[in-house]
Design a protein that fits this description.
Blueprint (H helix, E strand, L loop, with lengths): L1 E3 L1 H8 L3 H10 L6 E3 H14 L2 H11 L3 E3 L3 H14 L3 H12 L3 E4 L10 E3 L5
Parallel strand pairs: 1-4, 2-3, 4-5
Amino acid sequence: MNIVDTSCWIKYLMNSAIGVQAASFIENPGELVVPTITLYEVYKKLLAEKDDEYALDVVSYMQTGTVIDLNSALCLSAAQISRLHKLPLADSIIYATSLHYSATILTCDKHFKDIPGITYFPKNQ
């Protein structure tokens, strides 16, 4: 199972080099775990930069993966992870979700660079 972080979703939608690397994961929704915070972040970004219809189409596709709602157990785990790894709110939720569902995170977000269980794509690729 894989979690595509917001950073990689955006790179994929931009058809960047990182997006091309992430494509095989994104285009295999049967293996995607999608935390609801990722839906929020992608939708918010697309609403700011594209039109509503495009934003809705993208999040509709994202929802063909396994969408994971934030619950109290993930919330508490994310708080511990945030403290331990100094991660911001959304990233700690995404990482907690990955640990709970044994999923690998694909990201180009430098917050995740040195954390185990992460596939990190440097932005200079």
